[in-house]
Specification:
This protein has two domains: 24-123; 128-193, no CATH class. The chain is mainly α. Helices cover 67% and strands 8% of the residues. It is globular. The strands form two sheets. The chain has a two-stranded antiparallel sheet. The longest helix is centred in the middle third of the chain and has 27 residues, at 94-120. It contains eight helices and four strands; from the N terminus they run αβββααααβααα.
């Protein structure tokens, strides 16, 4: 995790130097098309690009869950995540699994960055820092180390952000979000859906 944070800082600084610290803007895709309706006095709008971004995110989540459940590499990953030593004794190449995990994580992060860039029609060298922190905390509050828990934590975090900025001052959005994260970590250190791993204890002599 520390190595990943360090690498992200390196990439961020490279982008800052190559872009001269300027935001890069794209032409918006489908800016006026989409969905619009009124719900309990609130006007709900969703552009076609927003709906496309949601559909792509759902597709990627289902693809990842299917990969973990249905492929040999997914079974290896689950085995290594539970007990790397026992997985190695069972004939699983732990180093290869770690390499696949690192490459897959990079690919999904790149896809997420691409979706966000097209959705907001722009990119800058600092946009990844806050998103990475929120992604990390989403994984922690959902249950660090489980795919479904991370997805649940991300949905909860997104709902909290969207609900707050729809009803209250958007300037305090991140304050409230990180405050809730801290509260969850204090009350549920294992995450909202987390379960401590079972550890068998030897029978004590009576």
């Amino acid at each position: 995790m520390i190595a990943s944070i360090g690498l992200s800082i390196v990439v961020q600084e490279v982008l800052r130097l190559t872009s001269n610290g300027r935001d890069q803007w794209l032409s918006p895709y489908f800016p006026n098309a989409g969905l619009s309706f009124e719900l309990s006095g609130f006007e709900v709008r969703a552009s076609a690009m927003s709906l496309t971004a949601v559909a792509l995110a759902v597709f990627l989540c289902l693809l990842l869950l299917g990969f973990m459940r249905l492929t040999p590499a997914g079974r290896w990953w689950r085995a290594v995540s539970e007990d790397a030593g026992l997985a190695a004794l069972s004939g699983i190449n732990v180093g290869r699994v770690i390499a696949i995990t690192f490459a897959s994580a990079g690919g999904f992060a790149a896809a997420a960055g691409g979706i966000l860039t097209v959705r907001y029609s722009g990119v800058n060298f600092t946009m990844g820092l806050m998103l990475a922190l929120k992604a990390l905390f989403a994984g922690i509050i959902g249950c660090f180390g489980t795919i479904s828990g991370a997805i649940a934590g991300a949905v909860l975090l997104a709902a909290l952000e969207t609900g707050w900025q729809a009803a209250f001052d958007i300037n305090y959005r991140d304050v409230v979000v990180f405050g809730v994260i801290i509260l969850v970590l204090m009350l549920r250190p294992d995450g909202l859906v987390g379960r401590p791993l079972r550890v068998d204890q030897p029978d004590r002599a009576r």
